[in-house]
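User: I'll paste a sequence; please echo it back and then give the predicted structure.

Assistant: Echoing your sequence first, then the prediction.
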Amino acid sequence: MGVIASLVQPPLVPLTQIERHLGTTIRTRGLLLEARTYDGGWTRLLLADENRTVDAVGDAPPTVSTGDRVEITGIANRAGTRIQVELDHDAIRVLQSWQDGNVPLRTLVQAPWNFQGAHLRTTGIIERAGPTTWVHDPSSSAKVHGGGPALDDVDEGPTMLLEATLEYDLESATFRLHVIHAAPAPRTGA
């Protein structure tokens, strides 16, 4: 019987449906926006998808980075007004490292608060209008303010692969892509 029980995995539940599974062990997936370990050894993760953020807490030490796409396992419950998942030990699995993924700019523009502070990779065309730098999605009308020393020497025009964090700029009341590294995007197709 122990072998059969070990083969059964908890259900995979989207972040938006966790509330329907309170009190049960679930698996869920999301973009890791925050990972902190506090005094006493407990961990708090903040996961997001396009529609919701969820806290995960437990004693599982994070071996993850912000911007990673992760799967967690634990018991769904409510903590005040927030939904959270109490992590099982060793219940964090990286599905995709932030370094291997690519978040389309149009996705960032549609729900920027779900990516705020996360490391990410994206592609875009650099445009300048006076002192303002924009990163434009060549496949849509999406664009976002860009900044950071990595953009200082980048010419306008070619599509660039950008390593960045998305930050909220209080002064301009807009989201800004803080570019850490920029390189020409690999060409696709023939």
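The domain at 2-96 is CATH 2.40.50.140 (OB fold (Dihydrolipoamide Acetyltransferase, E2P)). Residues 2-7 form the longest helix (6 residues).
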